[in-house]
């Protein structure tokens, strides 16, 4: 079933893509706004990869890069998702969406305001519900994951990833230096602790633990020192899930649909 409700989602990373995919499956017309150089780690499930490749595919749904808002209708009619490079949200004025979802996950507000659309939602820290946007969705793992917040902020960013199989901060790898990524491993590879999985210029990047490489930033990407560049899941059996939407993303997506429906945005 297709609806005429138009939605804009800012951001095309893996959590944003879980939301985008759910809204698409519900039949809504979604325009995705991305930055010029997306830095997704879980690239196999990020619609924003279309910025580099022209198209992207997440669980059978195709995202297609466009250059102007007027191209949206044709892409929707072809059963695909339009993706536009628009860091400042200029497309909002032209499309006039029924709702806007900020899913950039920058841990801070990069310019989203309540007057951008009749209804606004933001994911994670950096926003205050009732002030910056109408509602905020909690993104921190735990009992409150995907809780809908009608007043106040989400939990502040701790800088520590959620615990999986007993591992937290060890799961995430940050760049040891500034430079260009030269990947030696691919998403889905089983890697061993201390294995070199990439080089940043001449500086080796070592696997922090043994497991499946769930995500790694694009080969050739210019990274600053300390930037998150890879993610390892200690559960080797999760290899099969490297190209599917995560449980966390699906959970958050459900809350976005709920808050939109509960407030009359979605029929």
Quick overview:
This is Selenium-dependent molybdenum cofactor biosynthesis protein YqeB. This protein is an alpha/beta fold and 267 residues long.
Q: What are the defining features of this structure?
A:
5 helices; 9-stranded mixed sheet; 267 residues; 2 domains; Rossmann fold; OB fold (Dihydrolipoamide Acetyltransferase, E2P); single chain
Mean pLDDT: 94
Low-confidence stretches: none
Give the overall form.
globular
At CATH level 2, the architecture of the largest domain is 3-Layer(aba) Sandwich
Number of strands: 19
What is the CATH topology classification name of the largest domain?
Rossmann fold
Strand content: 25-35%
What percent of the residues sit in helical stretches (DSSP H or I)?
10-25%
The count of domains is 2
Provide the succession of SSEs.
EHEHEEHEHEEEEEEEEEEEEEEH
Number of helices, counting only DSSP H or I runs of 4 residues or more = 5
For the sheet with most strands, the description reads:
9 strands, mixed
CATH domain class name of the largest domain: Alpha Beta
Radius of gyration: 18 Å
Strand order of the largest sheet: 3-4-5-2-1-6-7-9-10
Structural class: alpha/beta
């Amino acid at each position: 079933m297709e609806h005429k409700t138009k939605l804009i989602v800012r951001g095309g990373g893996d959590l944003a893509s879980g939301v985008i995919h759910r809204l698409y499956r519900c039949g809504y017309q979604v325009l995705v706004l991305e930055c010029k150089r997306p830095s997704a780690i879980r690239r196999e499930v990020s619609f924003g990869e279309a910025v580099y490749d022209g198209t992207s595919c997440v669980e059978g749904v195709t995202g297609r890069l466009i250059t102007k808002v007027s191209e949206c209708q044709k892409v929707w009619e072809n059963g695909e998702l339009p993706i536009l490079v628009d860091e400042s949200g200029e497309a909002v004025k032209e499309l006039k969406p029924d709702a806007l979802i900020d899913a950039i996950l920058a841990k801070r507000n990069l310019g989203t305001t309540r007057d951008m659309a009749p209804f606004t939602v933001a994911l994670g820290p950096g926003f205050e519900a009732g002030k910056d946007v109408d509602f905020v969705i909690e993104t921190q793992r735990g009992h409150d994951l995907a809780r809908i917040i009608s007043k106040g902020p989400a939990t502040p960013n701790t800088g520590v990833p959620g615990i999986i199989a007993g591992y937290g901060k060890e799961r995430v790898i940050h760049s040891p230096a500034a430079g260009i990524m030269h990947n030696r491993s691919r998403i889905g590879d089983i890697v061993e602790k201390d294995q070199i999985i990439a080089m940043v210029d001449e500086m080796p990047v070592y696997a922090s633990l043994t497991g499946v490489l769930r995500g790694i930033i694009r080969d050739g990407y210019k990274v600053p020192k300390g930037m998150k560049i890879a993610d390892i899941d200690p559960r080797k059996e999760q290899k099969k899930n490297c190209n599917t939407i995560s449980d966390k993303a699906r959970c958050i997506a459900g809350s976005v649909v709920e808050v939109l429906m509960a407030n009359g945005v979605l029929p």
